[in-house]
Specification:
By secondary structure, the chain is of the alpha/beta class. It is 58% helix and 9% strand. The chain folds into 3 domains: 94 residues, SRP54, nucleotide-binding domain (Four Helix Bundle (Hemerythrin (Met), subunit A), Up-down Bundle), CATH 1.20.120.140; 197 residues, P-loop containing nucleotide triphosphate hydrolases (Rossmann fold); 131 residues, Signal recognition particle, SRP54 subunit, M-domain (434 Repressor (Amino-terminal Domain), Orthogonal Bundle), CATH 1.10.260.30. The protein contains 22 helices and 8 strands.
């Protein structure tokens, strides 16, 4: 098994306690481990190099969020770069799987790739998907006259998928089959024609010549290269051979259900420059999914939890809460429930230091916090105190007489003076908030909390 990247990075960052910006030496040390992890995940060497250079540059000097470790911060940076390189978040889900079918029907989709890559199966899977999810009338035709029974295989799959296939005429050559398929699809008003081209065990000139000839007679709107994600470096060589020879529009990565770590995806994208549109995830005809960059990045890194944790830390404030708060402040109301919400958000966002950094306009509130002796542990204690109050008390702190304060202190395991501190802080914060409001700072504040 692979050493997980988190173990590797753990060693590098164990010695690191420093805060603030990521230092060059530390980043470089981390990148050595990332490099090994990527190579183990089968990413091609030149692609790894390019990737590491890019990420190193981006990482040096990046601020480390308060509530995460430098190692976690690096993981997030690496993850984001992976997602970006795999096609970005926009390539996510349906968008990536979107085939360009805007043309006069029948729109031709040409499938290319080596024998055994899963080309025929993927052809049937995509045909089925187009039929079922987009209501397209699809016809498939096999141009594979090399492999015995390849045409019959497609016919069988067509039957299983409920998709029409071009009747087989023995002895006909690929370009002739393509022409016949186009005429048939036109005559019978098919929306889409999928051409399953011949594969070879290796890329050779005859194969490329055949692909070019088929492409020139069928003018495909999409040319999808099918590659087996388990073949790693071979897949890269295949992609390189096809790129430039045929007008590729996208990639289908098969056998993503296997234990490949997805490195081929990164290489594919880098080598072809084309989006990965689908991932094959099994032998059944439904086993195909839109390619999701973030999922594959996670697979390569094996660090999804850390990534989502850092994401949460960076953006933990909910919009509704922000709106609610803005409204209350506008009305000159800021009760203990609001204070508690703020405390919880502060904790999530990385504590006081982080807040102070993010809130240049909130000097007053910050001073109020400091004057009441707050640190990050105190945030939690204050939360406990407010939680021990009744809703009425929270809405109207004036209700809290000596007897009630005693009850709240006992309920939260604190002292009455701690309860008083919370109340004082609340008072000072509402004062500060009123001032901000007067200064017309509400808009800025809303943006900050949104
Ligand atoms: P072709 O020679 O490129 O047309 O390859 P085939 O479509 O005949 O596929 C070869 C084998 O791979 C078949 O047994 C398929 O069922 C299997 N296969 C294709 N795609 C996938 C996939 O995504 N996952 C798994 N596990 N098997 C697949």
């Amino acid at each position: 098994m692979f050493d997980s990247l988190s173990d590797r990075l753990g060693n590098v960052f164990d010695s690191l306690r420093g805060r603030g910006a990521l230092k060059e030496d530390d980043v470089r040390a981390a990148m050595r481990e990332v490099r090994i992890a990527l190579l183990e995940a089968d990413v091609a060497l030149p692609v790894v190099r390019r990737f590491i250079d890019k990420v190193t540059e981006a990482a040096i000097g990046t601020e480390v969020l308060r509530s995460v470790t430098p190692g976690q911060q690096v993981v997030k940076i690496v993850n984001d770069a992976l997602v970006e390189m795999l096609g970005g978040e926009d390539g996510d889900g349906a968008a990536a799987a979107k085939l360009d079918l805007e043309a006069k029907p029948p729109v031709v989709i040409m499938m290319v790739g080596l024998q055994g890559s899963g080309k025929t199966t993927s052809t049937a899977k995509i045909a089925k998907r187009l039929k079922e999810t987009e209501g397209k009338k699809v016809m498939m035709a096999s141009l594979d006259v090399n492999r015995p029974a390849a045409q019959e295989q497609l016919a069988v799959l067509g039957e299983q998928a409920g998709v029409a296939t071009l009747p087989i005429i023995a002895g006909q050559q690929p370009v002739d089959i393509a022409n016949r398929a186009i005429s048939a699809a036109k005559l019978q008003s098919f929306d889409v024609l999928m051409l399953d081209t011949a594969g070879r065990l290796h890329v050779d000139e005859a194969l490329m010549a055949e692909m070019k000839a088929v492409a020139s007679v069928s003018a495909p709107k999409e040319v999808l290269l099918v590659v087996d994600s388990l073949t790693g470096q071979d897949a890269v060589n295949v992609a390189q051979s096809f790129t430039g020879e045929v007008p590729l529009t996208g990639v289908v990565l098969t056998r993503m259900d296997g234990d490949a770590r997805g490195g081929a995806a990164l290489s594919m994208r880098a080598v072809t420059g084309k989006p990965i549109k689908f991932a094959g995830t099994g032998e059944k005809l439904d086993a195909i999914e839109p390619f999701v960059p973030s999922r594959v990045a996670n697979r390569i890194l094996g660090m999804g939890d850390i990534v989502s944790m850092v994401e949460k830390a960076a953006a933990s404030v909910k919009e509704e809460d922000a709106e609610r708060l803005a409204k209350k402040m506008a009305a000159g109301k800021f009760d203990l429930d609001d204070l508690r919400m703020q405390l919880q958000q502060m904790t999530k966002m990385g504590g006081l230091g982080m807040i102070a950094q993010m809130m240049p306009g909130m000097k007053k509130a910050k001073q109020a916090m400091q004057s009441s002796g707050m640190d990050d542990r105190v945030l939690l204690r204050m939360d406990a105190i407010i939680s021990s109050m009744t809703p009425k008390e929270r809405a109207n702190p004036a209700l809290l007489n000596a007897k009630r304060k005693k009850r709240v202190a006992a309920g939260s395991g604190t002292q009455v003076q701690d309860v008083n501190k919370v109340l004082k802080m609340h008072q000072e914060m509402s004062k500060a908030m009123k001032q901000i409001k007067k200064m017309g700072g509400l808009k800025g504040l809303g943006a900050l909390f949104g």
